[in-house]
Specification:
7 strands; two-stranded antiparallel sheet; 197 residues; Beta-Lactamase; single chain; elongated; alpha+beta; 31% helix
Length: 197
């Protein structure tokens, strides 16, 4: 088995492992040749589990379990955002934050996860590689349901039947933080001396 490429440089290994999102390095044959600690935690496996595997096998895609070793060749693969992102990146196109939904199997349990996929190719020692990064957006996806919102003050009624400010509600559930500003219409209305109509 090929050792992880970046282990030869402790600095790069530390940088890769410091990235909080799962990062995978794939070779020209679209096999995982390296991954960071977040990728291991994301998949619930040791880093060695992923090495030399195709993306579907490393991610434990439900379709790769049916036909091992054929990741990229099933009827489902043509719609696989991970596979398509890597293929486009290897062809020279940078893929930036495209949404993907994966059905993964871990410990014989099926789970669905929502991620944003970023893929970019790079050359190292005359060989082409692809960096694939996942951003977990599951908590944002869970917010897509209808929320009861006050028609006047815009507070949200949470699951405990408590009304809380919209920004506080989103911050608690998704980590989104807000900064406050004024749109042009409100700025003119509130501060007419500073903003001409």
């Amino acid at each position: 088995m090929t050792p992880p490429l970046l282990n030869s440089n402790g600095y790069l290994r530390s940088v890769l492992d410091a990235i909080p999102s799962p990062v995978f390095v794939l070779d020209r044959e679209v096999r995982v040749v390296d991954a960071n600690l977040s990728a291991s935690q994301f998949l619930g496996n040791e880093p060695e589990f992923m090495l030399e595997k195709l993306p579907g096998e490393a991610l434990q895609c439900i379709h790769s379990r049916d036909l091992p070793g054929v990741c990229g060749t099933t009827k489902f693969c043509k719609d696989c955002m991970a596979r398509n992102s890597v293929n486009r990146a290897m062809a020279g196109q940078r893929v930036h934050r495209e949404k993907a939904i994966f059905q993964l199997v871990a410990s014989d349990k099926l789970s669905e996860t929502h991620v944003l996929v970023t893929a970019s190719s790079f050359t190292y020692e005359d060989s082409l590689f692809c960096l694939m990064i996942f951003e977990d957006v599951m908590s944002l996806t869970e917010l897509k349901d209808i929320l009861p919102i006050c028609a006047n003050c815009k507070k949200i009624r949470n699951d405990e039947n408590y009304w809380e400010p919209f920004d506080s509600y989103l911050n608690k559930r998704s980590g989104i933080r807000f900064t406050h500003t004024l749109c042009p219409e409100c700025a003119k209305k509130l501060y007419p001396d500073f903003f001409e109509p």
